[in-house]
Amino acid sequence: MNNDTQRLNRSSAAFALSAAATVIFNTVLAWVKDAYDPLNQFMASLLGHHWISHAVFDIAFFIILGLILMSTGVASRINPLRLPIVLFCSVVVAGLGLVAWFVFF
């Protein structure tokens, strides 16, 4: 495969981007849930514990966004060598965001 023809299939690219977005979504949901107690209580009432609901929301977000990106084909236009970088950066940013949240707030 030369550089001009390197492409990931539609589903691989879509779900790689979806994973990167889900990592950020997870962090934002944790911030909002911890800052807004009624949301935390609501999520706890849904499935017995707020972290269980949190995980279900993350999984649903990942699947729904992945399917949307796969059906539109947007993700397959991205250079496949950049997708791991995007995923890595999203994990670093989200991780630092969670550390900052729990250390400073």
Key structural traits:
single chain, 105 residues, mainly alpha, 4 helices
Indicate the topology.
Blueprint: H1 10-35, H2 37-47, H3 50-72, H4 83-104
Structural commentary:
This protein has 105 residues and is mainly α. The protein has one domain (10-104). The protein contains four helices and no strands. The chain has helices at 10-35, 37-47, 50-72, 83-104. α1 crosses α2. The longest helix has 26 residues, at 10-35. The protein is flat.
Low-confidence stretches: none
List the domain count as a whole number: 1
First and last CA, distance: 49 Å
Mass-distribution shape: flat
SSE pattern:
HHHH
Tally the helices: what do you get? Answer: 4
Radius of gyration: 16 Å
Strand content bin: under 5%
Overall structural class, as computed from helix and strand content, comes to mainly alpha
What profile does the largest beta sheet have?
Answer: none
Number of strands: 0
Helix content: over 70%
Arithmetic mean of pLDDT? 92
